[in-house]
């Protein structure tokens, strides 16, 4: 007799399993501007200790701290012998980078940390040449990141369910952006938007739709009034490959003659 699935709809079951699997991959980045303003953004692990974030999260800012909300990651770091000899055991450090995309208009940065989460978020295979006008519209999404929570004593990983509302081109960059239904908030920037290619397949039906970069607003209004924009995956591949940081597990072979 087969074991019955939990009494949840497919989407909710997919979201919970993917959150539990990939929450250890998402870290926060606390920074300070030249004027002393403190900010927070997000980044996510793509393999081999390599993390991706939005360029504006760290550009022209001093990185004060990088950390995880997931207790299992914190305990693993504190219990690992290789970190005991550090001057500040448990402090996470950048060992390579940060590196930026060669196109200044592309809001992507990458770096390597001295910690390697067990899991890595797979980058999607929806390269620009495969994107039709309404590609992936109404597919389900899981947004992960660290928007500041008023009165909270620490950065907290926030998860939000949504769906792809539209695929659009922006004046500022040549790469497409997905608009998702989750409310845009400061702090989500640099975090991953996961997409359910197949929500019935919780083992291999999930990938990064792209990286959260901005809220599309008019006339300087607050981010919460705009569309959350997710930059697609192709420039992430480009940035990682250009700096020799694309993990072997993320490499894809494209038959360009057949495109």
Structure in words:
With 259 residues, the chain is mainly beta. It has one domain (11-247): Thrombin, subunit H (Beta Barrel). Helix content is 14%, strand content 34%. It is built from four helices and twelve strands; from the N terminus they run αβββαβαββββββββα. Strands 4-1-2-3-6-5 form a six-stranded antiparallel beta sheet. It has a six-stranded antiparallel barrel with strand order 7-8-9-12-11-10. Strand 8 and strand 9 form a beta hairpin. The chain is globular, with a radius of gyration of 18 Å.
Short précis:
By secondary structure, this protein is mainly beta. The chain has one domain: Thrombin, subunit H, CATH 2.40.10.
User: Order of SSEs, N→C?
Assistant: HEEEHEHEEEEEEEEH
CATH topology: Thrombin, subunit H
Major sheet characteristics: 6 strands, antiparallel
CATH architecture: Beta Barrel
| Unreliable spans | 255-259
Number of domains: 1
Range of strand content: 25-35%
Mean pLDDT over the full residue set: 88
What is the level 1 CATH name? Mainly Beta
Shape: globular
Count of DSSP-assigned helices: 4
Distance between the termini: 46 Å
**Spatial arrangement of strands, main beta sheet:** 4-1-2-3-6-5
Classify the secondary structure makeup into a structural class.
mainly beta
Query: How many β strands by DSSP?
Result: 12
Integer-rounded radius of gyration:
18 Å
Classify the helix fraction into a percent range: 10-25%
Organism: Azotobacter beijerinckii
Protein name: Trypsin-like peptidase domain-containing protein
InterPro entries: Peptidase_S1_PA (IPR009003)
